[in-house]
Amino acid sequence: MASKLLRAVVLGPPGSGKGTVCERIARSFGLQHLSSGQFLRESLRGGGGECRGVGGGGLQPRAFPRGRPWGRDGSFPRTLGQAEALDRICELDLVISLNIPFETLKDRLSTRWIHPASGRVYNMDFNPPHVPGVDDLTGEPLVQREDDKPEAVAARLRKYKDAAKPVIELYKSRGILHSFSGTETNKIWPYVYTLLSSKIPPVLSDEEN
């Protein structure tokens, strides 16, 4: 468990790998990984003494004290209004922004398929299912989300860019924004690890992650 308080958010457009980065941060630094949908609802429900969230991997809602470090991925906050709502719950110490080229994002999203019942995600280029078109564990059909289809991806990325710009500017003005650019999560990760290591002691080395 990390001994120093830290509250961090990983921001990035759809397909940027923010969930993967946040999971690695949680594992390497002993932070609680909070998911997107439940975060605000459970935080508000938790009241003044605690924040509540749902960890990755299908964990049940779990309360934890505000003195415990945490990190979360950036489907929230994705608008200025959401960032202001988050301010009323907890003060962020660190914001990591992932800058991935448009063509890379388009390729990742357009080749992404999911298993609806579990949420398992496959990518036909670098994480394909064992049998094309079906889930590895259940054998059930995979589907492509409507907004992952090639004709929808460009509009989706433009929408994110427009909404996220004031959020990024807000955190930049506070001096807590750190941006990382690249096309592969594995190449971005060592720089993120080095940044976090300067803030809190890791519980795993970079090689162990």
From TrEMBL:
The keyword Kinase applies. Residues 112-147 form the Adenylate kinase active site lid domain. SUPFAM superfamilies: P-loop containing nucleoside triphosphate hydrolases. Residues 54-73 are annotated as: Disordered. Keywords: Kinase, Nucleotide-binding, Transferase. One of its GO terms (molecular function) is AMP kinase activity. This is KAD4 kinase. The gene is Ak4.
